[in-house]
Design a protein that fits this description.
Helix content is 26%, strand content 19%. It has 106 residues and is α+β, with helices and mostly antiparallel strands. The protein has a domain of 66 residues: RRM (RNA recognition motif) domain (Alpha-Beta Plaits, 2-Layer Sandwich). The chain starts with 22 loop residues before the first helix and ends in a 9-residue tail after the last helix. One of its GO terms (molecular function) is RNA binding. InterPro entries: Nucleotide-bd_a/b_plait_sf, RBD_domain_sf, RRM_dom.
Length: 106
């Protein structure tokens, strides 16, 4: 039995695809995402971002952003996605915070 999948979100325009190495794709192709889970429910995006911008990491405020996820009731569910400029910054986050307590909570 064959399964034919079509992507409903795929563009149907006849515009040619952009080259992979175009200037507008350069930053995005190098950017990385780091998933934080098990965070205390009282942590905010601002708190986590300030943590990453301060010692010991001192990540760039220009290239670091945080997205916290909430449940259906609107409350933070302890999961955040951090966007950083490159793989080196992502690895520094992993080394410094993987398995560590944040905000004195377990």
């Amino acid at each position: 039995m064959a399964y034919n999948y079509t992507n409903p979100y795929q563009s149907t325009s006849s515009a040619p695809p952009r080259p992979v190495n175009s200037p507008s794709n350069t930053v995005t192709s190098q950017a990385r995402q780091v998933l934080f889970s098990g965070l205390p429910v009282d942590i905010t995006e601002k708190d986590l971002r300030e943590l990453l911008l301060s010692d010991p990491l001192r990540l760039s405020p220009i290239t670091t952003s945080v997205k916290c996820f909430s449940g259906p009731d609107g409350r933070f569910c302890g999961i955040a996605l951090v966007y950083v400029a490159n793989a080196n910054d992502a690895e520094r986050i992993r080394v410094n915070y993987s398995g560590q307590q944040i905000d004195g909570s377990e």
